[in-house]
Amino acid sequence: MQKRCRIIYNPTSGREALKNDLVEILNILERAGYETSAFATTPEPNSARNEATRAAEAGFNLIIAAGGDGTINEVVNGIAPLKHRPKLGIIPAGTTNDYARALKIPRDNPIAAAKVIAKGNTVKMDIGKANDKYFVNIAAGGLLSELTYSVPSEFKTLFGYLAYLVKGAELLPRVKPINMHLEYDHGVYDGKASMFFVALTNSVGGFEQIVPDASLDDGKFTLIVVKTSNLLEMMRLITMVLNGGKHISDPNILYVKTSKLVAKPVDEKMMINIDGEYGGDAPMKFQNLKRHIEFFANTKDIPDSAITEIGEDALDEAKKHFVDGVQELDESDNIKLDK
């Protein structure tokens, strides 16, 4: 039976360049053995999520989220609750494209991203659950939430990640800590903090050193709590992030691995950001769903330390290359190997 693929694309993501490449993307996937069709999301709420659920229940083998991190989040929310989940591919067309960055998928070339999918290498990725919502990259409370909500969507489209940096510089002097109660695997944090976040990958807001030891499939979040709101200390921490992730041992940072987190406000409201969008208010429970969804990825460029197991397709491909290599060695050097 021929495999089927459904591309769910956001026609307004980024600078709207994706539509120009759509025909070539369809051809690449058809040549890879998929009967491929496309669905353009609409302004209606949950358009991508609803189509992802429909396609999964209709038996599609592969769903591709083509757009920004928001489109990926919607597609994941469409299939994560299902018992039988298709594989997912990503064609980036957004602003920061954190998830594509973590999977080493080309972020400025949709055709190259489609070729990564056609190659067939996959990783079974952890995803997060926050109460009844799912996320693939990060959930946060505090400064990061305020920063994301304060950047107008048209600024994100025109100026990309620069828009976040400009808005962040504007907001830092106004940041104040709030009292938080955070329960994690082996401890509790009670005290003031300017923000906390739980991360699933090493790419947070375009920075790849915030979680320098990230694993994509070990069943653990990285919990980071920023205890200070002092402007000079915050700037120093940012410098440490950029200087190889040295912030993780700073006394103003709590940095731990955990499979779950319960976040509760103490004396004021605490909004929760889920993959860059408002996800509700605390109290909120976060749970890591280990190796829950299989994503196509550029596995050769992902550090070995970030993956504990590769997907079945990638394993088959590795075995094929090993057998081919043995045959070439046997024929060229006349070396016989024990079977």
Automatic annotation (TrEMBL):
Domain of life of the native organism: Bacteria
Stored PROSITE patterns: DAGK
Ranges for domain DAGKc: 1-134
Cofactor: Mg(2+)
UniProt KW Endoplasmic reticulum keyword: no
GO cellular component: plasma membrane
Alphabetical list of Gene3D superfamilies matching this protein: 2.60.200.40, Probable inorganic polyphosphate/atp-NAD kinase, domain 1 (3.40.50.10330)
UniProt KW Lipid metabolism keyword: yes
GO molecular function, one term: metal ion binding
SMART domains referenced in this protein's UniProt entry, alphabetically: DAGKc
GO aspect biological process, one term: phospholipid biosynthetic process
Parts of the chain that traverse the membrane: none
Keywords: ATP-binding, Kinase, Lipid biosynthesis, Lipid metabolism, Magnesium, Metal-binding, Nucleotide-binding, Phospholipid biosynthesis, Phospholipid metabolism, Transferase
Family designation: Belongs to the diacylglycerol/lipid kinase family.
Protein name (Swiss-Prot/TrEMBL): Lipid kinase
Species, as recorded: Ligilactobacillus apodemi DSM 16634 = JCM 16172
Native organism taxonomy: Bacteria, Bacillati, Bacillota, Bacilli, Lactobacillales
